[in-house]
Design goal:
The structure is a single chain. The protein is 34% helix and 15% strand. It has 346 residues and is an alpha/beta fold. The chain has one domain: NAD(P)-binding Rossmann-like Domain (Rossmann fold, 3-Layer(aba) Sandwich). It has a 7-stranded parallel β-sheet, with helices on both faces. The protein has a two-stranded parallel ribbon with strand order 7-9. Helix 1 crosses helix 9 and helix 3 runs parallel beside helix 6. The radius of gyration is 21 Å and the shape is globular. The mean pLDDT is 93.
Amino acid sequence: MRILLIGGCGFIGPFVIGILRRAGHEVILFDRGSRPNLYSELEHIKGDRRRIAEYAAAFRKAKPDVVIDLVLSSGRQASELMSTFKGIARRVVALSSMDVYRACGVLHGLEPGPLEPMPLTEDSPLRTRLQTYPPERIQMLKKVLTWLDDEYDKIPVERAVMAEPDLPGTVLRLPFVYGPGDFARRLSPILKRVDDGRKVILLDEEVSQFRGPRGYVENVATAIATAATDDRAARRIYNVAEPVAFTELEWTEKVAKTAGWQGEILVVPSERGPAHLKPPGNWKQHWAADSSRIRRELGYRETVLLREALEATIRWERANPLPVDEKQFDYAAEDAYLKDLPGRAS
């Protein structure tokens, strides 16, 4: 198959490229051409994602069978994507997020009413408010995820992709993706404490029990490649996540142990622990996701085991240190809390 990737040079894209090429597929990249030596052996279409309709002639000449858009941000972008490729490609695969679910709105205090039951399936209720995050949060995210626009919301993205009668769409709802190249540095809060020699890692009681969906980048890329190359995925929506949604406590234990740490993890009461340990939100609302549909219908399986995934991510994190938000690491407050506990020391 000839598969065109939009946004293929970021975090997940290189893994998707590798998997597709090893399977014998032809890969075409649509990018800005800002790194001309990257994947120079592949066919490139140079252009601006924000003006994608202007490159319809080049896309028609390339004749892709399937288009994978890794960087859709808004319904406007998705509508333009579908309009551009109608009559050119036979299917579009779009990346979405678990943040479409109502559970996300409950966690962030944007949805009234009761907690959502777990696990989240593809049929679970979506948010009723089309605002995933406050504007200030979007501006902060745009500094890390340069493909985001001010209208970021995956619900309108999904609607546009799935509504086009003449161009079948496939939507993949992604989890918290970790691994080499992770812009969000999802292991950093744990790994920094390990590498800073902390003997005790404190976890807020409510946060420690939170269950969220995770996925190692290469495994997520395998799911994307599987959906792109299997026509049974046409007009289907799939959750992508590891089969077990660990609590934050369990996840911290696994990451710290893999990193070689032998200290103690102490769960502290939410009302008495250091304030920086509990970000805003209703942490009683979990995001555990059921990914059985993509496994059952397309035969998807993880190719990288959890320990291998953690080891690879930790190696990359340690080899590529970045400045961190010191507000997350108020060791003075943590030591003061420990000092006030009978028989404890920092």
